[in-house]
Structures are given as C-alpha cells and as structure tokens.
Write a structure and sequence with these properties.
This protein is mainly α. The protein is built from 15 helices and no strands. It is elongated.
Length: 269
C-alpha cells in the first residue's frame, strides 16, 4: 500500500511539474518565472531523491540566462542552497561542468546584487567541491576586491581569503613555522604585488576587513616583518613598500571605520 501510494504521489508530482512548471518557468511575467525557480530550489533541498537530478537541474541552468534581474537572483540563491552542503554538491558534478562557465561570467552581472550572490555561490563551490574552480575561474573573481561597490568587494575579499590567503589552508600543504599571521601577510603581499594595482592598498584592506580584520590589525607582526634585517627573513624593498601601504591603510580603516574614498556602502532599501 505504501509503495502504491508513493507511486501515486510521485505521478501527481510529475503531472504538476509537466502540466504547470514546464510552461510557467518561461512565463512572460518575470515574477512568475522567479517564483518557479525559487520553488524548484526548495523542492531539490527538501526532496533530494526525486528532484536533485540533471533532468530538473537543467531548468535552473537555462534560467541563469534570464533577462530579468529577479529571476537570475533566485536562480543563484537556489544554487547556493544546493552547493552549501557537501552531500548535495556531490550530486552537482554534471550540472557544474555544463554551467560553470556561465556562473563564473555572472560575477560581472550588470546588477550588483546578482553579482554579489554569484561570488558567494562561487565561495560555496570552492569550499564544498574539491578542485572544481580552476585558477582561470578564480582570476575572474580576484579583481573584484578593487571595485567601488563595497558589498561586491567584501564578497570577493572572502573568496580571495578562502582561496589564497587563509594560513590554515596554506598550512595544510606545508608546516608553518612562522605563525599564522606572518604567513597571512606573506600571502597577501604576494597577491598585492602580483596583481599590480599598488595604489589601491586601501581598497584591498577594506575588502578583506570583514573576514580578516583581526589579522590586518596585528600591528606587531607587521612591525616585526618590517624591522627584520636578515637576508632570509627580511623583505625586499618592493615588499616593504607594499607592506607599509597595507599597514597605513589598516590603521586608517581601524581608526575611521569607513570604506576608502570612492567606495560606496550599499544604499539601505
């Protein structure tokens, strides 16, 4: 009886899906399209066995190209709900390989709030799917730490921290003998100098402030690094100059608590 009833319910669900969803996810009214995608994300989370399959996922993938902001936003949020869990993310390999290029390109979405959620989505992918993002994919996100929108820059700052600057991640590869914060500043200097946007230290510091503020406020470690004279531990001139800029920007940020000139806080709606 139980099996019969389960089959009956699944048949009803399929009828609803094919009779309503398949037509309405392309509705002319954007709000209806957004609602469809939002609900599909909910079904996938609450009834993974039936709905978390490529046959259903493809609808979210296709809708990532929707012209309307709200629809794209709901797509990305639905995907966040799936990639935030390692178990559900494990079912997403085929979807990821098919739609990853689109997801990465959306960090430049013309709507800032969509771009912010996309960067958060890529951060979840970074954390819950091993090696899914290539270095080239990550290179699309890094420059966003210098953009004028603070929400987007902070999201990119967290991504950068998780991918390149987290000493624990680095320590997993090689034993760290010089303290976590020293490792952090070594990684940060390498990124700052290689990205060749030297005059923007204040923007980089502001982007990392929410996720790595306590590390950036470790004046002792910065001072010790700058005073280091030995040829092995000491810094090159270029690194010293960059570290002084980072120190100055961190002090200003700690004292004023304001983003740098030209970077706007999101307007409260």
């Amino acid at each position: 009886q139980l099996q019969e009833q389960q089959e009956e319910i699944e048949n009803m669900m399929n009828a609803v899906f094919k009779g309503i969803f398949v037509h309405r996810y392309r509705d002319v009214v954007p709000e209806i399209r957004a609602t469809c995608v939002e609900e599909l994300g909910t079904w996938m989370k609450s009834y993974t066995a039936s709905f978390l399959t490529d046959g259903y996922l493809k609808y979210i993938g296709w809708t990532l190209h929707d012209k309307h902001r709200e629809v794209r936003l709901q797509c990305v949020k639905a995907l966040q709900g799936l990639y935030c869990n390692r178990d559900t993310a494990a079912h997403m390999e085929l979807f990821t390989s098919r739609f990853k290029t689109r997801m990465v390109s959306m960090v430049l979405d013309k709507e800032p709030d969509v771009a912010v959620e996309v960067v958060k989505l890529l951060t979840l992918m970074l954390e819950n799917m091993e090696e899914v993002l290539t270095e080239e994919d990550c290179q699309s996100v890094y420059p966003l730490v210098y953009v004028s929108s603070r929400a987007l820059a902070s999201a990119a700052g967290l991504f950068l921290y998780r991918r390149l600057l987290d000493p624990q991640r680095e320590a997993g590869r090689e034993p760290s003998h010089d303290g976590d914060n020293r490792t952090f500043f070594r990684l940060l200097l390498a990124f700052f100098i290689e990205s060749e946007l030297h005059e923007h230290a204040a923007y980089l510091v502001d982007s990392l402030w929410d996720c790595a503020g306590p590390r950036l406020r470790d004046w002792e470690t910065i001072s010790a690094s700058l005073l280091e004279e030995s040829p092995t531990e000491g810094l090159a001139d270029r690194q010293e100059k960059a570290l002084v800029e980072i120190l100055a920007a961190s002090v200003v940020q700690a004292a004023e608590g304001q983003p740098p000139v030209g970077r706007s806080l999101a307007k409260k709606v």
